[in-house]
Write a structure and sequence with these properties.
CATH architecture: Alpha-Beta Barrel
CATH class: Alpha Beta
CATH topology: TIM Barrel
Order of helices and strands: HEHEHEHEHEHEHEHHHEH
Largest sheet: 8 strands, parallel, barrel
Number of domains: 1
Distance between the termini: 34 Å
Radius of gyration: 18 Å
Number of helices: 11
Strand content: 5-15%
Length: 285
């Protein structure tokens, strides 16, 4: 029996989607991930599995995606980087993913190993994310072909972001998931990009749960920018108040993205999937 890719159907038919990002731990224990998914499953159109994000070891993303898809009967998306494999390895793993019925993919260049938990590992990077998009669109099996997505980082120069969208669409991206958004202004801009390039854009939402994480994201993570007024406000709050403030803001952004007819939202809860029902509880139909 062939698994029905309802995530692809909804994106292609311009229906709003909700996806959840999970980060498996390095020991391969998926129980916490399963608990998080179970809490959110009634709302989800897809579950996204990271690929050793920040160059920190985790189990193979498409293998974990296959197990989740089998267990929950919800479409999965697997992240796949160019960092750790040569072309032969990339093609081999991608064919394996298709045989397992995992069709939705996010193509990434990948964070440099020097910043992760294996700093002496030699990176490969035979191709970048655009090359990977093109490669995926030329691969298929008897029953499966990829539904390819890319990631959009934020840049103060809007022309740069427009060029990034143009490059990814030309390379074969069928949808885009953005880095976390914290203001309505950015959603306004994303809506214009979606219209200009006729490219479905799914808005990333990451509620920050502590000052330590806010500081780390602002100073260390490329592509994520917290507005100055929000950053300064969080500096004065307790961690519990930061989380509540972020949940309220995430709910506002979720409803705004839906109102503007973006293609969906992509929640990155960092192990706080139990907060997702709270964020979308006031969904404005």
């Amino acid at each position: 029996m062939i698994f029905k890719n309802t995530f692809r159907e909804k994106v292609e038919n311009k229906k709003f989607t909700i996806s959840l990002e999970i980060n498996p731990n390095k020991k391969g224990d998926l129980q916490k991930n399963f608990q998080e998914i179970a809490l959110c499953a009634p709302f989800l159109d897809a579950i996204d599995v990271t690929d050793s994000s920040m160059a920190r070891l985790t189990p193979s993303s498409f293998i974990v995606a296959s197990e989740i898809q089998r267990k929950f009967d919800i479409p999965t998306i697997f992240n796949f980087t160019c960092r750790d494999r040569n072309i032969l390895g990339i093609k081999s793993d991608l064919m394996g993913a298709l045989i397992l019925g995992i069709e939705n993919i996010i193509c990434l260049t990948g964070d440099p190993p020097v910043h992760g938990d294996h700093p002496n590992t030699k990176p490969v990077y035979e191709i970048n994310s655009s090359g990977l998009l093109a490669l995926c669109n030329n691969l298929s099996t008897v029953n499966h072909k990829f539904f390819t997505g890319g990631v959009l980082n934020f840049n103060d120069n809007k022309k740069v972001m427009e060029k990034m969208c143009e490059i990814k669409k030309s390379a074969g991206a069928k949808f885009i998931i953005t880095q976390p958004v914290y203001t309505k202004n950015r959603i306004d801009f994303l809506q214009k990009l979606q219209e200009k390039f006729s490219l479905p854009i799914i808005v990333g939402i990451l509620p920050i749960k502590s000052w330590r994480i806010a500081k780390y994201m602002q100073e260390k993570v490329v592509g994520i920018t917290i507005p100055v007024e929000q950053y300064e406000k969080m500096e004065k709050l307790s961690d519990s108040d930061i989380l509540q403030f972020q949940i309220e803001n995430a709910s506002t952004l979720y409803n705004y993205a839906k109102k503007l007819k973006l293609s969906g939202v992509h929640f990155m809860p960092l192990g706080q999937g139990d907060k997702i029902p709270q964020i979308i509880k006031n969904d404005s139909k």
